[in-house]
Amino acid sequence: DIQMTQSPSSVSASVGDRVTITCRASQGISSWLAWYQQKPGKAPKLLIYAASSLQSGVPSRFSGSGSGTDFTLTISSLQPEDFATYFCQQANSFPITFGQGTRLEIK
Amino acid sequence: EVQLLESGGGVIQPGGSLRLSCAASGFTFSSFAMSWVRQAPGKGLEWVSSISGSGTNTYYADSVKGRFTISRDNSKNTLYLQMNSLRAEDTAVYYCAKDITTGTTGWFDPWGQGTLVTVSS
Description:
The structure holds 2 protein chains of 2 kinds.
Chain A: E1 4-7, E2 10-13, E3 19-25, E4 33-38, E5 45-49, E6 53-54, E7 62-67, E8 70-75, E9 85-90, E10 97-98, E11 102-106
Parallel strand pairs in A: 2-11
Antiparallel strand pairs in A: 1-3, 3-8, 4-5, 4-9, 5-6, 7-8, 9-10, 9-11
Chain B: E1 3-7, E2 10-12, E3 18-25, E4 34-39, E5 45-51, E6 58-60, E7 68-73, E8 78-83, E9 92-99, E10 108-111, E11 115-119
Parallel strand pairs in B: 2-11
Antiparallel strand pairs in B: 1-3, 3-8, 4-5, 4-9, 5-6, 7-8, 9-10, 9-11
């Protein structure tokens, strides 16, 4: 199985900050990576797929990059509604696997 | 608007069975792969199972293989998850999710609101 490791596990930031979250795959997955946002008590929401493609309706302050084993999610200017937990996910092969999550908190 | 509505969750004793349903609307159901993803209380996301649009191809996590069965009824626009031999570690919110394109990409959007399964004596 492909293991997905996110860092950091949690991060504190302020409105307007630029934040980067990293995801590493245990083996190469080309660009088969997605990022999801989850708020408490809600279902996850797809932000980025294929490593860098912005899902329809997602604000352009979200961006993704990387290929192979190392990937990043960047939020260019944090907004109050962005404080949530973020998960990466690989879809290169079954079983599909998720990272453990990164909790983005208000500083 | 695409909508996914799960049902069938509840409290069940270890060793018991439960069937979850996910009613879909707002898209051509038979054209899209569908999946189940679960989240134990306070934990991360765990993929459970996926099924192709036609229902021909199915995939399972090792943790549920042989105990859970995914299926779909394209005439009813409904996805199912039959869960047998339930264990305490199956306790979670179960989400159904739609693939974003036709085919089986593994990119999930949207997700349903989730249904809670609690396995406890």
